């Protein structure tokens, strides 16, 4: 793909640009039609407390498409752009707010998954297959390896990452990137557990959580006194656990904050300044126990319709669902961005969506 290709501005031209990118990527492009009425029915108020975060005259936008599995959004305010991973295509994409272009930032990208901007404006990336490491892109473009092993054994598949105000780096290390060939290459895990790690300011790597089955997304509360971590399986539903963070960086008081129940799937998430959790949401792929007839065949259908589950579920700090943003594709992760830090970017299967809200990212 020509990395200088521009995604044209305007509704009709945007669709054409998206189609070109999709064709180059080998991925399907979904026709998206923005809502013409205010308020946008895609933004659903589940509790009156969420009404304050909805902008009455803001509607959902599809700003880019053509990826195979979009993940890991990270916003860079100094440049006015967002980076996100297109994992199966082994690249990191760049969406520029100024001109609406959507171009390749890095290819190959070692099957990058989670990304974050550190406090110095540098990109930190979870390379979750083949290299299986956490890296930092320096200002001159050099790549610094922050972690690739623990206690003499290779990491599993670094997935998501967050930077605390003390410059410590926290990341999850499940098995997804080495479980198959779709998002990298199948490999044997060397770590006996799937951990959450902390990299101290001096570079020391420490496993702070070792009893979560395939930890996924993670984030801190606004005051950083709590760490939230998604557990992919083991409870048996996907859950978010809350941990108290001690001054020395250790964690304790493990408490289940959110249970996704038997249909929904938690993935990446972010926390706003009020402590609400904005969570990527969709079907977990669980099947009905009995088949039904479809076109003369017995078919095991999904428990819950993806079209009803795909989007962003918003929970208050107590774990109560208060809002839902319905999307035409499953949302894997999200990030706050824009000049005022109130534009919600959502990486969703093949596309990148955006919505202005009356909430601001906590960091």
What is shown here, in short?
With 363 residues, the chain is mainly beta. The chain has two helices and 29 strands.
Number of helices: 2
Portion in strands: 35-45%
Q: Biggest sheet, open or closed, and with what strands and sense?
A: 5 strands, antiparallel
The coarse overall form would be globular
**N/C terminus separation:** 34 Å
Class per helix and strand makeup: mainly beta
Mean pLDDT metric: 91
**Unreliable segments of 5+ consecutive residues:** 1-28
- Helicity, in percent? under 10%
Tell me how many strands there are: 29
CATH fold field value: Neuraminidase
Radius of gyration: 20 Å
Cofactor: Zn(2+)
GO molecular function, one term: metal ion binding
Protein name: SMP-30/gluconolactonase/LRE family protein
Organism: Teichococcus oryzae
Structure notes:
With 363 residues, this protein is mainly beta. It has a single domain, classed as Neuraminidase, CATH 2.120.10.30. The chain has two helices and 29 strands. The strands form eight sheets. It has a five-stranded antiparallel sheet. The longest helix has 15 residues, at 11-25. The model is unreliable at 1-28 (pLDDT under 50).
What's the arrangement of secondary structure elements?
Layout: H1 11-25, E1 43-45, E2 61-65, E3 70-76, E4 81-86, E5 91-96, E6 102-106, E7 112-117, E8 123-127, E9 133-137, E10 143-147, E11 149-150, E12 153-154, E13 161-163, E14 169-173, E15 195-199, E16 205-209, E17 215-220, E18 226-231, E19 239-245, E20 251-259, E21 269-271, E22 277-281, E23 292-294, E24 297-299, H2 306-309, E25 311-315, E26 321-326, E27 333-337, E28 343-348, E29 351-356
Antiparallel strand pairs: 1-26, 2-29, 3-4, 4-5, 5-6, 7-8, 8-9, 9-10, 11-12, 13-14, 14-15, 15-16, 17-18, 18-19, 19-20, 21-22, 22-25, 23-24, 25-26, 27-28, 28-29
């Amino acid at each position: 793909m020509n990395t200088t290709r521009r995604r044209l501005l305007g509704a009709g031209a945007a669709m054409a640009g998206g189609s070109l990118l999709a064709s180059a990527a080998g991925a399907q492009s979904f026709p998206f039609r923005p809502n013409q009425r205010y308020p946008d029915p895609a933004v659903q108020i589940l509790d009156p407390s969420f009404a304050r975060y909805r902008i009455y005259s803001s509607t959902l936008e599809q700003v880019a498409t053509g990826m195979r599995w979009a993940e890991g959004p990270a916003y860079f305010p100094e440049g006015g752009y967002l980076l996100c991973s297109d994992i199966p295509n082994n690249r990191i994409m760049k969406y520029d707010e100024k001109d609406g272009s959507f171009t390749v930032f890095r290819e190959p990208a070692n099957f990058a998954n989670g990304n974050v901007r550190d406090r110095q404006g540098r990109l930190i990336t979870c390379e979750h297959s083949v290299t299986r490491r956490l890296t930092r892109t320096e200002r001159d473009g050099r790549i610094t390896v922050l972690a690739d092993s623990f206690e003499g054994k290779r990491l599993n598949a670094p997935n998501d990452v967050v930077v605390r105000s003390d410059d410590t780096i926290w990341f999850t290390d499940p098995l997804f990137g080495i479980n198959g060939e779709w998002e990298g290459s199948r490999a044997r895990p060397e770590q006996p557990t799937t951990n959450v790690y902390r990299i101290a300011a001096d570079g020391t790597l420490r496993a702070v959580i070792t009893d979560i089955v395939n930890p996924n997304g993670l984030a801190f509360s606004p005051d950083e006194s709590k760490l939230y971590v998604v557990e992919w399986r083991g409870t048996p539903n996907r859950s978010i656990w809350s941990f108290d963070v001690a001054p020395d960086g250790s964690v304790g008081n493990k408490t289940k904050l959110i249970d996704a129940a038997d249909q929904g799937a938690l993935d990446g998430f972010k926390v706003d300044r009020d402590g609400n959790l904005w969570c990527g949401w969709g079907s977990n792929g669980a099947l009905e126990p009995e088949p039904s007839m479809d076109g003369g065949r017995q078919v095991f259908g999904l428990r819950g319709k993806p079209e009803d589950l795909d989007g962003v579920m918003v929970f208050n700090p107590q774990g109560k669902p208060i809002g839902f943003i319905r999307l035409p594709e499953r949302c894997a992760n999200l990030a706050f961005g824009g000049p005022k830090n109130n534009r919600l970017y959502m990486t969703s299967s093949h596309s990148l969506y955006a919505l202005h809200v009356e909430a601001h990212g906590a960091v």
